[in-house]
Design a protein that fits this description.
The structure holds 2 protein chains of 2 kinds.
Chain A lengths: L2 E4 L5 E7 L2 H16 L9 E8 L3 H18 L2 E11 L2 E10 L13 E11 L4 E8 L1
Antiparallel strand pairs in A: 1-2, 2-7, 3-5, 4-5, 6-7
Helix pairs in contact in A: 1-2
Chain B lengths: L1 E8 H4 L3 H11 L14 H10 L1 H6 L5 H5 L17 H7 L12 E7 L7 H6 L7 E7 L3 H21 L17 H36 L10 E4 L3 E10 L2 E10 L1 E3 L18 E4 L7 E6 L1 H6 L3 E3 L8 H7 L2 H10 L3 E4 L2 H6 L8 H11 L2 E14 L1
Parallel strand pairs in B: 11-12
Antiparallel strand pairs in B: 1-3, 1-4, 2-3, 2-12, 5-6, 7-10, 8-9, 9-12
The chains are: A alpha+beta, B alpha+beta.
């Protein structure tokens, strides 16, 4: 399982899993975009490279999701796929998607921000998990 | 939140409601990734951050009279664009004139004579015709305000260490108000508030244009006057009585709204006797309310009241119980024509996911922190 939606009255909360940090970050991005759009309606026409650095891995995930949400608004992009590589405190991600087209894409709920409320990244027996609450 | 009158009646609007809502749906962009209809350059956006509704009125997106019908005259004075990041600006610059998504909406509503509780006050607010039509808009600063918040969450993370502050919830990250970081945020937050005022103002302009097109009359002749515009998320320095003494406080209204009493100096002359109009949004199926601020709110809640009915059910639960397309049909049969950017988004906003607005307003009335004037029934709705 990539992620599980948790009950929350006003916003969207989920728990995301990954055997490695790379997988965890990828799945967190998938969960975030699944809230906004049916990813199957997106073609991977535009490729973007994201580079981030933070010694605190929990903060690095937060900044990664924040950057994706920013690109959605500032450059009108929705993403279909994510390849994430984390080496120590560096993140390099290749994300693919296209410009938002309301006629083509099955758009769902807009995400305004990732929040720190209940936010947590932890190690598990099989890898990692994170709890994320998106403000919508 | 914003409420506008018309002098049109249900009889006049009902036959045109489909056309009207379809027109507004086209002209007021809603949903994920919608582009604002007001194209501005960076200099203009800076002016909007600093001056809010004033920029809109100066640039043809409103009437002089709109200014005084906004909380703080639609402009937070201490806004300072130099405290806002380039990132936030690039996120906000394209969003002026967008409704957004989630619980944001534009609604055409009916005031039945039987739903007027305080006739005298309703008249002052411009609600004076039987079966009158009004328009309500709920939206804010969109991704712009959130980017400012995200930027300062990072700043405050360090500030909290510096001042040895710990909080139970990291989203409540903070800084001492008079610290350099605190003051910078206060000025940046005001820019978000000004952008939200401006966003609702340009949307009002589009609503007036939409009505003009459909009813072939001038907005002025349809008396499309703003009743009031209030913020739902804002912190402000205000004077309040604490232990019998007037004190300057930072009042933070989050998910709540200002409700100043009659005679308050921040209210325009026309509302001096009534008190501030308070707009409380309900679900798109059940309706909304107009109330006024009270002296008791000033004494007990720092001039504050509720801002909406509030949800009782998660979005996932609502979607399990309701299907968007089915709900849309059922609502149309009940006389509410709704257009939504997303059908699942529509299901999530179903009436059953919200508290009963009548009970919410009753408890506010009983608590004495706002006084009901009238209630509205939806007849047309646009959901993001």
């Amino acid at each position: 399982m990539k992620y599980k939606i948790l009950e929350h009255t006003a916003d969207i909360m989920f728990e995301v899993y990954g055997k490695s940090l790379n997988k965890l970050f990828t799945n967190a991005a998938i969960a975030t975009f699944d809230v906004m759009v049916k990813r199957s309606s997106i073609n991977p026409k535009i490729k973007k490279e994201i580079n981030l650095e933070n010694k605190d891995i929990e903060k690095l995930l937060f900044e990664f999701i924040e950057e994706l949400i920013y690109l959605k608004d500032a450059e009108y992009l929705v993403f279909k796929s994510f390849k994430v590589k984390i080496k120590r405190s560096n993140l390099k991600a290749i994300v693919e998607g296209e410009k938002i087209n309301s006629k083509k894409h099955k758009l769902l709920l807009d995400v305004k921000a990732i929040t720190l409320h209940k936010y947590r990244l932890s190690k598990t027996k099989d890898g990692y998990k994170a709890t994320i609450l998106l403000d919508i | 939140m914003r409420l506008v009158t018309t002098n049109l009646t249900f009889k006049e609007v009902k036959p045109q409601i489909t056309k009207l809502v379809d027109t507004l749906f086209k002209t007021v962009p809603a949903g994920v990734g919608s582009k604002g209809f007001v194209k501005v350059n960076k200099q203009q956006f800076i002016e909007i951050m600093d001056s809010g509704v004033k920029w809109c009125v100066d640039n043809g997106y409103g009437w002089q009279d709109d200014l005084k019908k906004c909380e703080g005259y639609g402009k937070i004075d201490w806004a300072d664009h130099s405290q806002v990041s380039e990132k936030a600006i690039s996120r906000g610059i394209n969003q002026l004139g967008t409704l957004g998504s989630g619980n944001h909406y534009l609604e055409v509503q009916l005031v039945k004579a039987s739903n007027i509780i305080d006739e005298k006050t309703a008249k002052v607010f411009g609600i004076n015709t039987p079966d009158q039509i009004v328009v309500m808009v709920h939206c804010g600063s969109r991704g712009f305000g959130h980017q400012i918040a995200s930027d300062y969450l990072k700043v405050f993370d360090e500030t909290m260490k510096k001042y040895n502050i710990t909080v139970n919830d990291r989203e409540l990250s903070c800084a001492p108000f008079l610290s350099e970081e605190g003051q910078k945020y206060y000025k940046a937050m005001a820019c978000a508030a000004n952008m939200a005022f401006a966003n609702r103002q340009v949307i009002l302009h589009r609503i007036r244009q939409g009505f003009e097109k459909i009813f072939n009359k001038k907005a002025e002749d349809m008396e499309m006057n703003l009743i009031y515009d209030v913020a739902h998320n804002i912190a402000k320095v205000e004077k309040h009585k604490v232990d019998g003494k007037m004190k300057e406080l930072v009042v933070h209204r989050k998910g709540s709204t200002r409700a100043f009493p009659p005679g308050h100096k921040e209210l325009p002359t026309i509302y001096q006797k009534t008190g501030q109009p308070v707009i409380i949004g309900g679900s798109m199926e059940t309706g909304s309310y107009l109330l006024t601020g009270t002296e008791k709110a000033m004494d007990e809640t720092f001039g504050t009241t509720a801002h909406g009915s509030g949800r009782t059910m998660s979005r996932t639960q609502a979607k399990k119980q309701v299907r968007g397309d089915k709900l849309q049909k059922e609502m149309q049969e009940r006389g509410i024509y709704v257009k939504a950017a997303s059908m699942s988004g529509l299901a999530e906003e179903a009436g059953l996911a919200y508290k009963d607005i009548n009970e919410v307003v009753n408890s506010l009335d009983k608590a004495g922190i706002s006084k009901p004037v009238c209630s509205f029934k939806p007849i047309g709705n646009i959901k993001g």
